[in-house]
Amino acid sequence: MRFELPSVRKNRLVSMTPLIDVVFILLLFFMLVSNFQQWRAMPLQLSGQNNGPTEREQSFSVVIRQDGGLELNNIPIALETLTATLKRQIADGIDPNVLIAASESTGLQTLVHVIDSISAAGIDQITLGGTLP
Questions:
Q1: Hey, what CATH topology would domain 45-132 get?
Q2: N or C: which end of the chain has fewer CB atoms below 10 A?
């Protein structure tokens, strides 16, 4: 004799907890590997790429010394006052040109701060010159 038992259908519920965990881990991973820093380009010329200033251009030289100090046209100046001094010295209608010379030990961040200060004065013709001894 054979008894047939009614087949019991098992209703399996899919738990959302593992799915939420996986989504959270992926979200955390992509947040950690993402870079939220905005990159921007700085237009620079290398010394030797241009023929030198024309009669209508005004030239400035900025020297970054080994001790981190600055000189504007051989006069010591602080980084905080560089923008205001350049704005005062720029004549109306003249396209200024700035030549930057730095020592080999000058850090990249210092150079970027100097370039940002020069750009804030409204000067877009910036040339990187040679290094100082």
A1: Nucleotidyltransferase; domain 5 (3.30.420)
A2: N
